[in-house]
Predict the structure.
Amino acid sequence: MKSFSLILSTLLIAATALLFIACENNSDSPEKVMENTVEKVQKRGILRVGMSTFVPWAMKDKTGKLIGFEIDVATRLAEDMGVSVEFVPTKWSGIIPALTTGKFDVIIGGMGILPSRNLKVNFSIPYDYTGMSIVAHKKVAAGFNDLQAFNRSNVIIALRLGSTAVTAAKKYLPKAQRRLFDDESQAYQELLSGRIHAVVGSAPTPAFQALKYPDKLFLPLDKIFTKEPIGFAIKKGDFDTLNYFNNWIRYVEAEGWLMERKNYWFETKDWEKMIK
């Protein structure tokens, strides 16, 4: 019995020693603590933001400077982090792959939170909500006064490639022909030329286009037909950065700043003089 007890005690002491050594090695291991995006940004001194142009989310003024709701959001975020901001214009269809390969730190570009996207990136809590609207050509779509009027096989709808407008069109207008464009301006050019019936896009852009070209375009619906939460997108696994972004959104929302900027860009036209 004494021999068994001695062996057992020896084994327990050895196991404890090995556990202690493992813990010591683990605490000293450089692989244990990985720098999160916020730490990398603060060391670099620059927050790199992936975005694409959507009026009035992000657009260029008469001097070529980027302005818009998302530009304000990203600029304020960088200021509160104590760094400068660098915008990285990216085609919408390739913006998620560009994020995952490290071309920028975060997407702040009116990106709808979709389950399919969430499989590839992590999203912050919503900092905005938008929805799909439709603007149509007065002659080509004459008499179309509801969504179902566009849900026919002889109707052509223009959409921005990679946008949630494509998802909405597939769901609500499955019979219509879909014509995809990398740039939203190309879609509206097709509409103005009368080669398509309508464009589906995030509100309020379709309404702005109808107001801009009242002789050619009209709004067949008086409201949006979807509602989408909008969030920041970051790489998978970076939960410290996600925590910071979530709490930053809560802070500026409680402060009233988010609503103030949203009202300026979406409820007024005071900014139009900067782009005309």
User: Anything to note?
Assistant: Residues 37-129+228-274 form a domain with the D-Maltodextrin-Binding Protein; domain 2 fold (CATH 3.40.190.10). The chain has two domains: 37-129+228-274, 132-218. Residues 11-33 have pLDDT under 50 and may be disordered. The first helix runs from residue 2 to 28.
